[in-house]
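Query structure, 215 tokens:
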């Protein structure tokens, strides 16, 4: 289970795999916010009826492709930034083990769940900011403190809410407590940042596996 040396290169199979993985994971995470009432979709996608008719998966048709694009974009940013750093004599970031990748995905999933739960329970906004920001920072520090990892998380924390602002303005969904310009919950950037380490470690592991198969 030891971490191995970092492979180099970016291929279409890596991007395709990350896009597919993100398209699957995205609706599962989004379901937390739907079930907690954090947001509501104009045209929801309700799957797998549960007790009382409540769907077990509550999301929207555009969520899988949107998460797929996000996963591909984050992977591209990660490896482009890594290539620049390596070209300047930087040391490769070790390839994470699958258990470490799993921990990152689990931590991000729990953060997503907790954000919806706190919003639903009426947790003071300052408390929610503190908890989610600390969660994102701890995940970054413990799971991927590389410069390119930090950059990917930071850009995602900025870009994600900007995309959401456009979708909200188009009337595709709305937040229950949109305390930032009436568009989205002000704490959502911390959730985006929290996903950075999970995506980056998975991307590194996927790339290493695909390159090993090709080698």
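Result returned for the query:
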């Amino acid at each position: 289970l030891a971490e191995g040396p970092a492979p180099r290169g970016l291929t279409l199979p890596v991007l395709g795999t990350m896009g597919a993985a993100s398209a699957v994971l995205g609706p599962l995470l989004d379901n937390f916010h739907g079930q907690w009432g954090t947001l509501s979709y104009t045209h929801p996608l309700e799957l797998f009826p549960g007790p009382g008719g409540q769907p077990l998966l509550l999301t929207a048709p555009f969520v899988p492709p949107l998460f797929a694009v996000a996963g591909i974009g984050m992977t591209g940013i990660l490896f482009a930034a890594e290539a620049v750093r390596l070209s300047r004599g930087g040391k490769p970031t070790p390839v994470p083990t699958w258990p470490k990748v799993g921990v990152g995905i689990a931590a991000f999933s729990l953060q997503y769940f907790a954000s919806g739960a706190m919003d639903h329970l009426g947790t003071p906004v300052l408390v929610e900011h503190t908890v989610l920001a600390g969660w994102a920072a701890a995940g970054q520090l413990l799971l991927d403190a590389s410069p390119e990892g930090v950059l990917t998380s930071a850009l995602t924390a900025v870009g994600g809410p900007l995309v959401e602002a456009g979708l909200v303005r188009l009337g595709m969904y709305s937040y229950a407590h949109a305390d930032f310009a009436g568009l989205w919950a002000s704490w959502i950037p911390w959730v985006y940042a929290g996903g950075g380490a999970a995506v980056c470690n998975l991307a590194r592991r996927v790339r290493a596996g695909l390159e090993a198969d090709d080698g």
